[in-house]
Every structure is written in C-alpha cells, then in structure tokens.
Amino acid sequence: MSLNAHGLSRDIPSDVKRLVRQRCGFGCVVCGLGIVQYEHVDPEFKDARRHDAEAIALLCPQCHSKVTTGMWSKARVKLAMRSPKCKQVGHTREFFDFIEGYPELQFGGVRLKNCPIPIEVGGHPLFSIKSPEVDGEPFMFSGLFSDQFGNVSLVIEDNEWRAATTAWDIEVKGKTITIREAHKTIHLVLRVDPPKALIVERLDMSFGGIHFNASGDFLRVTYPNGGGGEFTSCVADNCRIGISF
Hints:
Number of strands: 19
Shape: elongated
Helix content: 10-25%
Distance between the termini: 51 Å
C-alpha cells in the first residue's frame, strides 16, 4: 500500500469517490470522457493529510497523463473544476467497442443475436443495429435506458454512450457502468464484453408504460394492466425483431 509522508493511503474511500463523481459530473472535468481516474489537485497527494472531495478531480487517462508528465499544469485542472465539461453539456460519454461482427445484446434473461432490432416497445425500436457502410468498419449500435420512473439515463447512438449528469451517481469501473438513483438504489448495471457483446446485468426501468426488471439470467416484464411475463435463458437469433413488447 502506497502512503505519503503524512501516512495517507492512495486508496480513496468509496463515499469520497462518489462525492467527487457527483461534483465533477461523472466524467473528466476537462474533456468529459467517462473513463476516469482520481487526481488530487490542491493539495497534491504527497502533501494531503486527508482525502478531500473538494480537492480531487476526475480526469480521463489521456488528460491525467498530460498533468502527471508536466505537459499541463494543475492550474488548468483547477480551472476546469470550476465548470466541469460534463456539467456544461449535460452528460458524460465514451464509445463501446463493437469491432468484430454483429453486436449481441444480453438483456437479463434474453440473449439477442443477429437482430437489426433486438428489442422494440410499442412498435418503436428500443435498441437497433445498423450494418457498416464500409467493409471492415464496426456495426452501429443505438438504444437507450431509463430509470424506474421513465427518465432517460443513458443513450447509445452509433456506439457512443452518453450518461446524463442528472443521475444521482454514475460509476465506470473496468468494463462496467453502474447508474444509481439513490444511495444503494441501482437501476442499471451495464457491462461491455468487447469486441461484440453488451450485457445488461441489472435493470430497474420503465419505458413506454412497461416496467423491466432484470437481474442475472432473468428478465421480468410488467404491463400497465398488471399482466406480464418472465424470461430465463431465452435466445433470439437471426430475427429482424428479436423481441417485441
């Protein structure tokens, strides 16, 4: 474990990290990208006696490298912290890697393969996939997720995902995006498995009057009239529309 001269560990407590994410808009304060690292700005880590959320910024690996190599000053980061990029534009963003073949979607208990419209709701695509215009280029995946009240929280447009800064918390860790509505209230856990799969591991979502609840290998769907159904280990392959609600 790395300690500074004051005995402070580099490990930032999870509650402090969450405060940093919320203050920075869940992405790099400079460019807005969603894959981030935590940087002690003022004081620097070597001089810090505690992990103060007000003194820590989110930086993407590229912007972080520019600071740690001395190409950029801490003053530039401090300026960006006053008005984080994500809060200016209303979202944090990054790209999914679907470089190899037709993207697959694991939506709770349903696996959808080779479907131009994996899921539609009320006759409208919830997710859609476009073939590449040029051979060798990636397929283009689009869709959206909303919370249990129907508020859109994450949009995917041609492989670029954008998560709204109105969320209570957005955490990108490894290959997983977790969005929370409140403390200990998760509405989406989304994991990418490059180069072709997107996996919904957990979901509590309302869209078009229909409620979707997913965890592990099951998907429960509830309609406004109280009807619905449950899906476990289902596969839709080579269909124009994988599943329609």
